[in-house]
Batch of 4 targets.
Target 1
Amino acid sequence: MVNFMQFIQPFKSYSKFKSYSKWSFLWHPILITYLASCGGGGGSSPVTTNNPPYDASVITDLDYTLGTPSTNTDNIASLLSSNDETREFQLDNSSPVYSSPSAAHSALNAGFDYPIAARDTNAIEVWQDGWTGLGQTIGFIDKFDVDSGFDNETGLITVISENDAINSHGERVAFVANSVAPEADFIWYNVIERTGLSFEERFNLVENASIALENAGALIINNSWNVLRNEATADYSWESNITALQNLLANQDHIYSDEMLFIYSGGNIFEGGCPFKKIDECDVTAKTIYENRILGIADNRVRMWVGSVDEQNLITSYSMEAGKMANDFLVAPDDILSAGDAEGTSLAAPRVSGAAALLNQKFPNLDGNDIKNILLQTADDLGQEGIDDIYGYGLLDLSNAISPIGSLTE
Amino acid sequence: MEHIFFNKIIIQMNRKYRNLVLFFAFIVFFLHPAYSDEIKLLDVGNRYQATPVWSGIFKAPNDVVYQTPHLYHPHNTPIFIKGYYQTYLKNKHMLLRIPVTFDNGYESALFSADPSLTLGINLNFRVNPSILISSSILNFTRIGGSIKERPCRDSFLRQFHCGTGLAWVDSFNTHIKNDVPRKFLLEARLLF
């Protein structure tokens, strides 16, 4: 297992900022102001109650399952410190190459202490009490441009060179998840080799990746590189692929742990030329799961999809919409460092993956289905009131997700 | 040492039995004529006063206000009795007063407190007709009164502290404690 912090952590810089840059005087007062505004404000004052109704109920001792917070919160900035400032960072393939993640941050994200995903998800608020993703493992099935380090047996990437630039799709996706869950462990499966493969071979590639990541301890699987999507949409040969996928799923004997949650990017309309906007019209996996549900066929894993929104919280022009998968769909922003610096639902999904890691650390009693439902039910409603076929449940909101849901009982 | 000894005995008692014993001890203490230079009953009521109790109304991290007062409503009938015993020493140059508070505890879904007996000491010494020195130790000792808080659960069985709105695991520093602040007061009065 590889700790993502050891190779990509973008902001080692923060500890360095403290010593030499303008950031050193910026983050302190901001953090202090933030803590002052958040700390302890929510509690009711103890009061003495009077004249109670009598009820002879019995108090029983409960078996509590508690999460383990990080103790690395005295200096929250250090959560984002990196052990690897030697790696170059490139925002996208046409952007300048920066000498390090912190150099990119200084140049592209001026005025902010944390990358935008930490802010737009309210993750910073969750970190205050030590919920940083510590002890959680997120697996990434994606395209990684790395020079070496494949484990032929497991398919996992095990080593990434310190001299290998952060410049591939998968690394940027992981960068965003790291911005939300800075102390989570990350593991990767590279699915770059997919040209020339049959549909079944692609399916098996993804399944092998998922099983390998599960075996490596990942409970949250981020799929921002959907191997099956384009195949389904390129020639509109829907039905054959849906049938094929239904058969492959039906014949698959592996049942994933119910603690796992598979998070898929909703997909972008410029991928594969799908002329529609709904994921059940352009994503063969989503369409197949939908068809299977109608047939009463259970899925062998818990899945959800993530679309992307712009700074006005409007669905982006390129994001797939919820469609008939509205009950499994929410949206999140899709920037990397600062507003408007990137686009694509690939960068929305890792926000949800990071959020799931924080939830799982804080509330270890939750399984994958619980985490999915909490993230959905606590999303901020967007678009038409209630669940709709564009935004699904709405915008990811970690403040809501860590707050109680439903009625409270003893 | 004495405090610990009594606490151990009290803890070992069955709660119901302990309640009765404490109440009985309190009554004997106040009514026994052998000790009664002067006894005064200051206040009696059906409230729990030993510590605060959460209202059950809190604001969660998402700023939503939750109403759970029913989880802190007592199942028992709380009773408190306050009074003191006083006696004159050294030819009435010295007055010893022992404030006493008995509380029969609190039982609710999320908060429970054992019965408690709280004692203080107050000593008044008249140096001469115009100078009075008074020293007090408020809440000198408390016997019993241990407190237990429990989490509430939301619809996903996640544990929260319904007094503060924090996740249960984040709430431990906010729990109500039985440690009554002990205060020492020294006062000199000039009488004209």
Note: The radius of gyration of chain B is 21 Å.
Target 2
Amino acid sequence: MKLLNVTNRYYIIIAVALMLIGCGFLTYRLLYLFDKEITEHMLYEKQIIDQQLYEEKHLQHLNFKFGDHIEVQPIDKFTSFRVHLRDTEMYDPLEKDVVAFRILSYEQQIDSSGYRIKIRRRLTENNDVMYGVLVAVVLISFNMVLSFYFLNRWFSIKIWAPFYSALKLLKNFDLRKEGKLQFRTSAIEEFNRMNEELRKLTDKVASDYRNLKEFTENMSHETQTPLAIIHSRLDVLMQSENLDEQQQEQIRTTLDAVNRLSKMNKGLTLLAKIDNNQYADEHELNLSEVIEKHLSQLDIFIEGKGIKVVKNLNPKMRVKLNPQLVDILLTNLLSNAIKYNVEGGMLKVSMDNAGFVISNSGDAPSLSSEQIFERFKRGGDKIDSTGLGMAIVKKICDYSSCEISHHYFDHMHLFTVAINPGKVKVN
Amino acid sequence: MKILIVEDEKDLLNAMVDYLHQSGMSCEKASTLEEALERIDLYDYDGIILDIGLPDGSGLKVIEEMKKKNHQTGILIVSAKNSLDDRLAGLNIGADDYIIKPFHMPELVARIKSVFRRRSFQGKKELVMNELRVIPDEMMFFVNDKQVPLTKTEHDLLMFLISNSNKVLTKESIAEHLWGDHADMADSFDFIYSHIKNLRKKIIDHGGRDYVKSVYGVGYKFHSE
């Protein structure tokens, strides 16, 4: 959930809660005030009536002056000045309904004759008030929430802009590309602090990466010559006249080790070169032709192991990739599929518009599908492998924006390479 | 056979000289471009083994000079791994072949001999050893003047063995010669064994001698006597 939606959600919840409390309070207050106002008004009317009675001494015009809500009746005997207030319900001919009224009644004495005076006032309906308040409050709250929402959006776009720009920079951050991240300076201190820390972090990561890369490069480059010297010296030594079998065998094992070291060296150099963008040029290739070429080169090993090859190739598919990398990728995948195949097993190569699958019969893997692509992870007891083949495959796929995955299913190893659709052409 | 080896790494240069010497070639050394240019100006060689990356310039200069002299020296480029551009440039201006560092010495010998053969045996491009005769370009093989059909692998194997006769060849160097990058395939040594067996059988069946001996735990040796 977006930060904005989270805050908006809280805003709305709080607004609704406040609105409900406000409604209740407002209704209560209004009812109280209306009530008080009516009573006060009635008492005021009483005062006017009393004054008139006092001045005019008769009640003939009272009805006319105050309307029909005032009732004056002569009484036989005046008892007290006490004022009575009571609420009642009566039929209202205008509303044609029973409505609530408040009646103020008292007795008055004018020239020794007594009168009972009743003032009647219609009471406001509680429901009406509540309804009115609710409508008003809901309208106000709705407007507030709405303006909050839009204001918030506007603020968040404006205020969070440096954050999103930093996020975008980080997303596009690529260790392989040179250059430091240039964060936008913002007026907000927190963002500037965050950017500063991010800058330090990415600079550190980049420099560590560079050092590591340099180390690998130097290591593999600088060991080449000494390895070549050891190798050639051993070749010379091997031809010496008076070697016994044991000595010859010792030279051979040393040669073996040097060979392995050279191959590892070659693999590491290749990995470093891919990282260094040295295989950037891409050409259009007919993938099925390349696969056929590699299969024919491996023919002798396929036959030797009695492997059955099943091909399902699409000769119309063309891919735009680096030819050298494609060669290395296919060599590694295909020779792997033969190396780890079983006697009389199967090797399947199938293509579709999304990529290709190379599958082979084989024993259940001792490594997980993820581990297979890690450096120096070897499956089984094939010590003569460098442990780099699959790491190279993975690196090539990553570099060429292809995706490789491994599955083991029904005694078959499946290596699926999904080629970036932008690099595939079928016609 | 007189060879000039141009290589800036002195230890490697000496090792190469020693090995080629063992193989019966006479070698001269140059470890800088200047030295190399001086040598080819003064002497003629049957072959030049040339490292492109020299401290005082590109080895390609040597090929250009040789071109100007217009003589029949075979040139084998020794290039560092993956420096494809140098290799192509070298082949374009007149080098005959290339070999990638690091290499097995028998491979170097086989390559330089093959370059030499192509350059020198004008018209008569065949190789004779006692009762054996090979025409490499046409992939033809004769024992006692009777043609023996060989597969491509067997032919490659035979040429490699003959080029390195009387030398102990490790299985690795044979595998790498025959299958290059695929040499480390599982069972490739078993394949070598069966190819050697077939080749031996074909030679003996046609009245040839048993030239190929296995060297216990190491590989094979082709005895020319």
Note: The first strand of chain A starts at residue 70 and ends at 75.
Target 3
Amino acid sequence: MGSSSITQYLLPVLVVLPLGGALLIQLLKKVSKLISDIIANFILVVLVVLVFSLLNNPVLVYKVGGWMPVKGIPVGIYLVLDGLSLLLLIIINMIGLISLIFSISYMNKFTNKPLYYTLFLLMITGMNGVVLSGDLFNIYVFLEVAAIASYSLVAFGTEADELEASFKYQVMGTVASAFILLGIIIIYSITGTLNLADIGRVLKDKATETPLILTGILFLVGFGLKGAMMPFHAWLPDAHPSAPAPISAMLSGVLIKAIGIYVLVRIMFNVIGVTPIFSNMMLYISAISMTAGVFLAFAQWDFKRLLAYHSISQMGYVMLGIWLMTPLGILGGLFHMLNHSVFKSLLFLNSGAVVYGTGSRQLKRLGGLNQKMPVTGGTSLIASMSIAGLPPFNGFWSKLIIIMACIQSHHFFLAALAVLVSIMTLVSFLKVQRYAFFGELKQASKDIKEVPFAMCFSMILLAFLCTTMGVLLFPGAKELFIDPAVNVLLNGKGYISLVLSR
Amino acid sequence: MIYFLCGLLFLVGLSGILLKRNLIKIIISLTIIEYSLFMFLALVGYKHKAVPPIITSLTEKNNYVDPLPQALVLTAIVIGLATTALLVALAVRIYEKYGTFDIREIRKLKG
């Protein structure tokens, strides 16, 4: 035993608990109608408590099955928790809990609620597994668990357009998985190992450039498809709006980060190592995503589709920050990732509340909803200002840091572009506010009501987070939440010796 | 030679996805891609004139085949099965709604 602390045994719990819960719901669904609500929400509450109890820990490594390394070479599957994984775990489980609270009322209009909770928990299982896993093939397996759960959740309404979106999403997702698997096979054939840290160790001794460039490109295409970076984004504007609103919040807020950006960043920064060509390429891709996403969003009149295009644009910000590779840029990128998950899931929950209340998500048919749905209107105003980057909301701080980082590393054009996109985002969300929430109340929506308590509660919670998360930048909170994650990326290949020494 | 065939199979599947307009044919193309990868993965562990890795005594030193890719292939096949099953189920539901497998006629979503 490297470290004899008890905390490392919490790592598999984060994966096993939602998996067991998914099974339990299916077993007990006949007992009572409420039981699936209770089990699912209880499990997520436990997960959130667990994740926050893991804060402020050193790097933890759990060797699945107790397979100890032989002569310093790892044999079993490792679960690794470091600052970056922890940041992602916080995002996944916190947004997951809030979406689940929202689902209690929202999902009543669908027939098979226990099945929904089962798939939801499977998706959480997959994502927790991806961010915790220290083994390349294990990442692939968990990624598929999360992806297959999300395919079926997108099709959950089984209406014509939902099925179509899900099919498109699934074809794209399967091709992406094929590319990722091919990359993994090539890496295995070069190094003869699948453990992330061990791959890095073997690659250090070998000078094999060409296959690595190939795998870099394969991973870029694969995770680019999963994370909807710009040339590979086509499925996202169909898939994300078609899902039920809490699932849209999970997909846009969490899934594309956990199985797209996180894995690519982890493999490139900590294992293979980033070449300047690769990081420059990623900078261009993120700049294109950022700009094109917002332009495409401009033309949309469907509330959720507009939000989906903004997801592409905001993920461009996140990647722009991270791939600048400066400490300030990485700080901004990761902080924007955290912020984006909060305000984008809030916006999707708002759109869900609007659909729940009025039955429509076409902006032209809405109007004056502030009079009837003050909570939805108020929280969406906060979220809109947050995504547009107005002070003092959280989006402002992270965008400010990213733009400062651009200037600091002499990318003046990118900085100007980031400001421009931010202004375009503001205009786009002014349109949403103007058409949906302000203005005159339409005749058709005279007798709508505010949504039930559970939905209001989760929206208010997220709005509260939007307003206060700028606090995380102050000393004290910064060292606890964001700095460990930034250090993981700055440390680069230091990850290898850190994991192998445990 | 056989590696080359794997690559060819991969490209056949990829072109099938891009060119075919029938949902079922797209699913078949995806399966072809997956199978080419499974074959490639099994080939990575192959060694010429090697014996199965069944170790009977610790002193014996034979030229063993790498057993890990075979375990990985099994896992990958199971994942592929799940994906294909879900895709076929979706295709059936789409047929119920649209009355066709032709992707040119299944396009409610655009913009």
Note: Residues 3-500 of chain A form one domain.
Target 4
Amino acid sequence: MSLWLCLRFENFFLQSLSLEEDTPIAVFQDQRIISINNHAFFSGIKKGLLIEEAQALNSNLQLLKRNKSAEKKCLEELCLWAYSITPRLNIWHNSLRLEIGGCLKLFGDLNNLLSTIDEKIMNIGYDVRYGMAPTAAASWLISHRERKFNIAFNSNLKERISPLPLNLLGNFNPTINKLNLSGLNTFGDIIKIPSQDLKIRFEGSFIEFIEYTLGRREEIFNDYYPKHTFLEQQWFDYSVRNKNEMISSIERLLVSLNVFLSKMQVYTNKICWLFHSAGGDVEELIIQSTSCCANYTIWHRLTLIKLENQIFKTAVEGLSLRCENFISISSRNFDLFPQAETQEPREDLLDKLRSRLHSKNIRRLGCRDEHVPEYAVYTAADDDSRLLSNIKNEFNERPFWLLPKPQQLKHHEKKLYWKDELHLISGPERIEDNWWSKPISRDYYIAKNIYGDHYWIFCNRRTKRWYIQGIFP
Amino acid sequence: MNKKLKEIINRPDTWIAKQQSNNASTSRNNLLQDKSLSTGFDSINEVLHLNGWPLGASIEVFEEIHMNGSMSLLLPAMKHLNRQNRWQVFIAPPYIPYAPMLLNKGIDTKKILLIHPRSEEELLWITEQALRSTTCSTVFSWLGSKKYRYSDLRRLQLAAAEGDMLSVLFRDGATKNTQAPSSLRLLINNHRRVTVLKQRGGKQNITIQLANEEKDRFKLSSIKNLQI
């Protein structure tokens, strides 16, 4: 069963700009007042007054110009929150219309769902009127009649909308004027007229609206779909050079991102900070996390580590946080049997280190199935998934340390030196390989110095030169 | 016993005389057993206060010039801790660990992280972060020959105390006379010869010469007539 809930924001022009109630505030458009708070209302100010008239009534009146982009942003935020309740919703005349019939099971029952919504609306502080009906259009109309939720939404729809004045439909003004002149003032008056007669007399869009309202025709609209980018800005009121002064803004933006991720039900593995200078230059700071996460603490910690090393060429005037890489929560795999030894994911340490060090400074150890020692071991970037460690050869004694490159030994009077004189104690073990390109033929020995340290050395059979390649523990 | 007093007694850095004499110290010993790990060498275990490497405390290993053998002391512990699904971190290692050898010893090299700091400041920062992280079972950090401030080493000791990992700081033998808050300080000044310079709650200035493994170790063919 289809059930629509309309949340109509009554004082939206004002409340999208300010929720202040201690001082009289009014929003104006085309020199006329279009929205006021309670304080201004009690001063005698009304909608429709000219600015000068309103100011004459209260000299302390704070006037704000209508800001459509602020309204749009507020609606975006509200939609994002509403999207966590139901995926079927749309915006209609500064109202949100939510199809809640399909998500009643999710919330247990209608009462639970409504109390969740009510609690959120109370926290936001907006003046909201509610309307519940089987159609989206009717829910909006009913929101003009009922102040609170009316559980009796299933009662006769025609009866509920009959007393409502037709003037509510401001966008059908010419039609409404004609109807008023004919003595038809309420929806009840319209409903009584046979639909065929209405279709002949009045314009198509008005008739369509009535049919949508009464459920005679299904209303087709584009559901809201959340945008794929998070981008928010904070501007400082002054030029900032000290990084500590940025921290509170960073925290605010991260909280905002966290809310966004939670409502979108997604994770991210990359965020990007943009530092805006007065001259218009933008410096970028990218933070990555191996474990995709929506965890505020992780992003906060990684940002502060990376920020510590960031050098700004000029003073910073503003800060933006951008996030475009999202991963759906459902596509993540979780370990059914998490390791008991670690309280945090192993990737956390990598992320922390990567925030401060270049990735080339963080290496993983890999192993190849090769005979030549320098080819058998390699180090790779910490995120290299090609690391191998399952090659297991049965070979002779091998050193713990391998020199990055074999170092030539000093050779003097038939004695070998590497810092100190070396004595061969075991060998040789011949290693030959790479005959198809650059042939390698070596005889390996174990040698020790006067302190007893053991080394892995070899003689290049072609050049007859001696090299040290490894150190035994 | 008073709860607070019991907590103090159970700290691994509290030393109690005649430990075998009462029940309290027996239970403490059991508790401390969890805070230590066998070295894999009986002769070393015997002289160590906790009968093994202290976990959750920093160990300093001083290597005299040319000495590179200290890893042989730590290989058994490294192998044991490799069973855990945690990192084994090498910070500023002098060379590359030879992966085939580690694999042959049963050590999974996928759990090994090699970190190469660009400065001493970074070296201390990385070491501290690794010690504070619960994701590491082993932290080996090569601090080199620099004489670090006591406060820097104290930070590392405190960071190590937060966890339960094996934490070893390798330092140049020339710095062995500097003050440090480590729980255990060892000197290696000859092949397989270990001197306990300091240990909290245990005996000091004891030298252990580990048996030479050459005979067992190098089973290669004897050196033939060789012209160097």
Note: Chain B is about 30% helix and 25% strand.
